[in-house]
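quick one before i forget lol
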Amino acid sequence: MLKATISQVFPRLTLFREENYRGRRFIWRGNVGLRNLERRYDDIESLRFFSPSANATLVLFSRPRFQGRFRIFRGSVNIADLDDIIAGSDPESLIISSSRLTLAQIRTIQRTGVLPPGFRTI
């Protein structure tokens, strides 16, 4: 008899429409880049990023298409209020990765708008 198994895909990002993890939520798993948060979700106010790896990376950008200023988070993080999180700006695009993205890789993404192989662009 076969045993039932559960497959988990990490990292996991949960976006919330309201501050303090309330309101409608949207969940993404795996290596993903969201090019335009405002167009896709209207307004995101908080998030939870989870991965069992301390090297998992969340990058928030101040402009759509991975442009503008950015802020990097490593490992799991919960942000109850995204207002002004990037040098006085709200996030307009983001990337989640199961592995460590280097500063050089992030700057290349910022310059070209192209994610590394193995990433989905939404």
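fyi The domain at 12-121 is CATH 2.60.20.10 (Gamma-B Crystallin; domain 1).
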